UniProtKB/TrEMBL annotation:
Record protein name field: PXMP4 protein
Gene: Pxmp4
Species, as recorded: Pitta sordida
UniProt GO cellular component terms: peroxisomal membrane
Source taxon at top rank: Eukaryota
């Protein structure tokens, strides 16, 4: 599963934003795919093993088991701050926030919105990320910085159609 998810992403991001030889790019893609796949496999093994051990020790499965097993697995497997783990954690965090928001409405902790809050959320997210990009760029993840640089700065210089189709960061011979 990790290879299925990471390989296409690594391929696109590497060829869009990384420099180097074809061999270096392919090695980078393979390394990212391997790391993502390995970490997911280690995490699943750790999580399932701890779930089984807890269930066996207590004679039944209880909700806390899931949280505890995942915390231990997350610490052991995803605790190193590297680009792959960082991206996985950010992916999960965004989905957790959506899930917790829905759960809070479902449980009655917050009222059901009268209108769809998504447009407001979209406005706040884009406003915040562009403000951070313009004034506190170093706080953003490097791959997000690269994407935003490509979209909002590199796009100000055009040579020909290949800039749009391939990559528009090149030096002109003078």
């Amino acid at each position: 599963y990790g290879a299925k998810i990471r390989a296409p992403h690594a391929l696109v991001m590497t060829f869009l934003f990384k420099s180097g030889s074809l061999r270096e790019k392919l090695r980078s893609i393979a390394q990212a795919t391997y790391t993502h796949s390995r970490n997911l496999a280690y995490f699943v093994f750790t999580y399932k093993g701890l779930m089984a051990a807890q269930s066996r020790l207590q004679g039944k499965k209880i909700p806390f088991h899931s949280f505890f097993a995942a915390c231990i697995g997350g610490w052991l497997v995803f605790g190193e701050n590297n680009p792959i783990n960082s991206q996985i954690i950010m992916y999960l965090l965004s989905r957790i926030l959506f899930g917790l928001s829905r759960l809070a409405v479902e449980k009655g902790y917050i009222p059901q919105p009268r209108q769809d809050p998504f447009p407001l959320l979209a406005a706040l997210v884009w406003g915040t990320v562009l403000w951070l990009f313009e004034y506190h760029r170093e706080t953003l993840q490097p791959s997000l910085q690269s994407s935003m640089t490509y979209l909002y700065e590199d796009s100000e210089v055009w040579h020909d159609l290949s800039d749009f189709l391939i990559y528009n960061k090149r030096t002109d011979p003078k």
